[in-house]
Hints:
The protein has helices at 14-23, 31-38, 46-53, 66-75, 77-101, 114-117, 134-145, 149-157, 162-168, 181-203; strands spanning 3-7, 27-30, 107-110, 126-131, 171-174. The protein is α/β, with parallel strands linked by helices. The protein has a 5-stranded parallel sheet with strand order 2-3-1-4-5, with helices on both faces. It comes from Castellaniella ginsengisoli. Pathway: Cofactor biosynthesis; coenzyme A biosynthesis; CoA from (R)-pantothenate: step 5/5.
Amino acid sequence: MFSIGLTGGIGSGKSMVADWLAEWGAAVIDTDRIAHDLTAPGGAAIEAVRAAFGAQAITPEGALDRNWMRERVFADPDARRQLESVLHPLIDQAVRAQAERAQGPYVVFVVPLLVESGRWRDRVDRICVVDCDPETQIRRVQARSGLTRDTIGRIMSAQASRADRLAAADDVIVNDESTDPGALRRRAFQQHQRWCARATQSTDGHITHG
């Protein structure tokens, strides 16, 4: 199936775009949502996280303590790698299982750290970046989450730069300060239509890349 890797920095609006693509019929596989399911109470990753980081990494409800873990992994690269070694194999397993069941004109893999991982270029036909200027990202994340500028800055510093994301992109959906939700939806729908056309051509054996 024709495939898109959808990415963007925190606060870029990629989840909103992904929801619209699903509404219009695309098969959407969101690695962030998979990770949340894996680390929710009773999730498949909980016991492995507990074994790796101790009981303090788990909330009384039995979920990953995201605030505790966020502070830990941004302060300690080894802790970040340890968490990734627990989560990534489980995420990949879930992604492959969902991809096998996917139906629709094309499949979208929503991967926040797509560019950073270096593992997705050969797994998808096209990479799409939802692009946003850093200051707008910060304001949006503050408005929805209440995180401090310092915390948001550390999250952003662990992600690829805007320039690196754009350099990796085959397609770009702009969602900057001047973009309202209606404009973003129109841009996303135009891109959806182009991908549907490419998916048809790919099925006919004409193109996949380019």
